[in-house]
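Sample intake sheet
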Amino acid sequence: MAHSGNSFELQGPSGSTPRTPRPATLQREKEWSMKLQNFKTRDRAIIKAFLEFRKQNIVSQLKRLNLSWSNWGFGMEPLETSAKRLENNKIRYIELHGNLYGKDLGYRSPEVNQILRSHGIKVGGICGMVWPESEFSSSSPLVRQHCIDYFRRHIDFCSEVGGQYILFTPGAVGRPNKYDDNEFCRAAETIRIIGDDFLKAKIRCGIEPVRKDEVSLCHTFAEAKALIDEIDHPGVKHIAGDVFHMLLGEEHIGETILKYGELLTNLHLADSNRRALGTGMLDIDIVIMALYLVGFNNEQCFCSPEPLGAGSNPYDQMNGRPDPRMLDEMVRQTASYFYEREEEVLNAGEMDLLES
């Protein structure tokens, strides 16, 4: 095919004049019906189930999903500044950085309660931090004891600020290579020790599956459930999901939510590029539909954006000072997009959803 400017000239083999194409109606013996891709077929099943759900409920009376925000990605920013940003974007919950690293570091509950109350914000839960010096699966008993002590401080703190859950990974974030083949057993044994503490405080214990590039074990919901079964304690019964990790570890996010919905207590949100919602290719509509189908719109469940970027060790951000203007825009974009898509999903016409 030769071209000059905007005009194209077809050439046959060896420069010969090509045959005249047959009319399109003669080229096809029948109309072709395009087969859906596998994920689209799964999407369609969730959409149909959601449409049935809508028929059985009055949309205007449905409680909306609790949009929260995981604030450790804000780095060393004062809580007052973070709370004001969330209030300005109509976010009424916060997932607090688990920063009680010792007696002289971290939040103080009276101050936290005062700041958040002044901005109309409640604590959804605590994001527990797990690193090589403090992790449940470590081969060092001293490290595991350090981790137990860290989480006991946060269980007390979570109760004091009215939080519903504490989430964590069983192995250190930023350590993708395993110590040995016994990490799973050590993690189960050590987490079981604090099961009574969670149960007594009435705080949900949420195990978070994380991608293989960041942690050495517990990469999928199925693996988190296997760990919960191994722990076998009534104080350890929940999963904290993250759509970014689910994109890498699960076959289909919506189906995974439906399968494990009764265990799910928090869902971290970020787009496919691990940045603000609406800037990548995540189908947030399917996520929202699946959450409604499992009754996630209740007082103990939260959607907590955590757009951290795609690095292999996101913990680097917690001790820095990100540009406040960048944080403002990230929160504005995410919150406005989430609220927009939630209303679209709840109110769109049936054919609009089926054809989306």
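Comment: Residues 40-354 form a domain with the TIM Barrel fold (CATH 3.20.20.150). The longest helix spans residues 324-347.
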